[in-house]
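Hey L., structure's done. Input below.
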Amino acid sequence: MKNFKAFLFIIIPFYCYSQRQFSKEFSFINDNDLYTSYYQDRYYTNGIFLTYRFIDRNNKSKAVKKIYNIQLGHKMYTPFKAIVQSPELHDRPFAGYLYGGFGIDRFYENGSFLKNSIEIGAIGPISIAKEL
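Output:
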């Protein structure tokens, strides 16, 4: 067992450097304030995001690296207290935001970073937040 631990200690650093560099990425993110506290589900309450990122291989700009982002997202917002006697007592409305977005991240040699993005979406009943 002692030799096996020594073997792992020696071999694991080589695996860290042998990873392939990828130029494309899919991600799925789901966040919800209910995950951290059952009693404080308020304001920004939930988000679901599907993102595709890829590196520009034909980068002719001054940026060292340029990454394109395409995202579909859905955000839901609730009042401070979700259950009250009358809807007029809410401090803000229940709301949803369904959108698609596109962005470009640029990394420069001097260590600076520039992120530009645009989102086009809908709020209200068309955002399907009530169904979720």
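The first helix runs from residue 2 to 17. The beta strands are 24-32, 43-55, 65-78, 95-107, 113-123.

-- N.
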